Amino acid sequence: MLSGALLAIDGLCVAYDGSCALNGVSLQIHKGELICVVGANGAGKTSLIRSISGIVRSSSGVIKMNGVDITGMPPWEICERGIAQVAEGRQIFGSLSVEENLLLGGALKRAKTGQSETLDFVYQLFEKLRERRGQLAGTLSGGEQQMLAIGRAIMSKPEVVMFDEPSIGLSPALTDVMFGVVKSLHEQGATVLLVEQNVAKSLALANRGYVLENGSIVLHGSSDELLTNPEIQRAYLGL
Amino acid sequence: MQKKFDRGLERTRWLAGITVFAVLGLVGLLANPYVISLMTIVLLFTFLGQSWNLMLGIGGQLSIGHALFVGLGAYSVGVLYVKYGISPWVGLLTGMILAGSVGASIAWLSFRFEVRGIYFALLTIAAAEFARIMFSGWEFVGAMQGLFFAAPTGGIEISMLRGDARFYYFVALALAALGIIGTEFISRSYLGYVWRAMRDDESAARALGVRTFQHKILVISLSAATAAAGGGVLALVQGSIFPDSIMGMGLSVDVLIGPVVGGLGTTFGPLVGSLAAIPLNHLMSALGDSLRIPGLNNITYGVVLISVIWFLPDGIWPAIVRLCKAIQGPPTAWLWQSRKVEE
After folding, report:
1. Which of A164, A173, B76, B281 has the fewest CB atoms within 10 Å around its CB?
2. Under an 8 Å CB criterion, which residues of B touch A?
3. What is the model's pTM?
4. Å from A79 to nearest chain B CA?
5. Where are the domains of chain B?
6. Beta-carbon count within 10 A of B9 CB
7. Cβ–Cβ of A91/B338 closer than 8 Å?
8. What is the pLDDT of residues A51-92, one digit of tens each?
9. Which residue in chain B is spatially nearest to A79 when comparing CA positions?
10. Minimal Cα–Cα distance from B225 to chain A, Å?
11. pLDDT tens digit sequence for B139-184
């Protein structure tokens, strides 16, 4: 199982000032898969993303990308290896124009060639962004900012895109649009790691899912298995 | 990319810039010696303010110890010229390399140990004070007695960067223009938007793969080197160097007043701020002398600074831009809105 995975995480532990945020998390993503990690607030979802991207140091465990150990690498090197993230709360650079935000995402060495084609692709995906390319990103609406954050991640030509709660702060209608975008990205061949609180919607999209509770994976399986699991139905779906 | 900046706005900006510098050029040709010497200082502090602005306004790193870099530039020119007769051009280059390296070292040490934000600013003060005290006791560089340049002989010597007050006015004008054009150029380049992104949200920039550690060192080093160039010319203009005035806390504050009053992170802010603050300071200083109220200039300074921060928290220049917007109606308003640096 481990050998074939694009991104493989084994026994990952993260601690902040002694308190444990992740406690021995293991998961694998294969090329072309869309998997989701669901859990409540404080379960360790964001810590998982931040440690994969190298922003937070793990205290133990191994993260492998394409079989290469990337644990402890600086964030820029991990980005160069093709792991992009759409951070929680979008983290748009408000005083930069829309296009500058996108170009910043495409500033990596891996994304330099064919940058204008990638930009075109992003503009095709999000027409609104093309219209507003010269506008300051801070003046965009919440939904548009989320599109920009996704576009920026695509600009780095990633092999894996990690979404950290993309539906947070969006209206139900926009949330559906958001999940639609994630789905179409996946259909176009992207490998996606989706971290979400919205259990029903993200499981409906994903091939497989992991349930994170108090820093540990308590359940994993195919989306159908999880959706029909009585524990999940009781705790997360309110059925 | 080519559509990013609107042509019409572009033309307005160029016209405005050229007009301002044409007027400043005329001032240099026609004004009386008092105005010339005052304006020389204004223009030098425009340049120094621009260098400081590069670090905080674009790079997001606060320095309250820029006197260190200004002083290193001044002493490099002074020591080489006064002691060895070496051309100030060499001194300027030496000062820039020296200050750039010192700036990079401070940044490296600081960020290596995760000292950032306001603690980094405290570190810059400590470094400047350390240097001031060291230079005050260092006989080779004149210690407290300072260094004196020989009075200019009257002729203009470009190779030695020596000349009369008018000559230095135009040197300062050239520096200020260079600072403004350079800032504009940088903020539109790749480095510019990487640095502004870093200023907006450092951890988000890091997550995107920006090597923030290296970029912070680069921007600080560049700011330090340009401050040293300004310091070298300042020493030539003043004709003397004393550790307390060229490396003191006071100078660090003088450097940041222009951009803070004029508009942080803007291209024209340091010029507008220096034009507003420095003549006022001199005027109040003279008024205080004649009225026998010592410190009147400092009190006025304080009042003006508090008023600007209270009423125009983003500075005078952005307020002027907003005013133009309001007067000229919707189409131009849209144009201004497409600007990024000034917002």
Report:
1. A173
2. 1, 3-4, 6, 190, 193-194, 196-197, 199-201, 203-211, 337-338, 340, 343
3. 0.86
4. 5
5. 7-248
6. 16
7. no
8. 999 999 899 999 999 989 999 899 999 999 999 999 887 789
9. B209
10. 26
11. 999 888 999 988 777 788 888 888 888 999 999 999 999 999 999 8
Measure in Å the smallest separation between the Cα of B337 and chain A Cα atoms. Answer: 8
Q: Which is nearest to B208 in space by CA: A185, A167, A149?
A: A149
CA dist A125 and A147 (Å) reads 9
- CATH number for the A1-72+197-239 domain, one of 3.30.300.30, 3.90.226.10, 2.60.40.3140, 3.40.50.300? 3.40.50.300
Question: If we measure between CA atoms, which residue out of A189, A200, A17, A164 comes closest to residue A85?
Answer: A164
**Pairing mode of beta strands A208-213, A60-65:** unpaired
- The number of residues making up chain B comes to 343
User: What does DSSP assign to residue B149?
Assistant: P
What is the length of chain A? 239
Helices (H), chain A: 45-52, 75-80, 98-105, 109-112, 115-125, 127-131, 142-155, 172-187, 199-205, 223-228, 230-235
A115/B contact by beta carbon, under 8 A: no
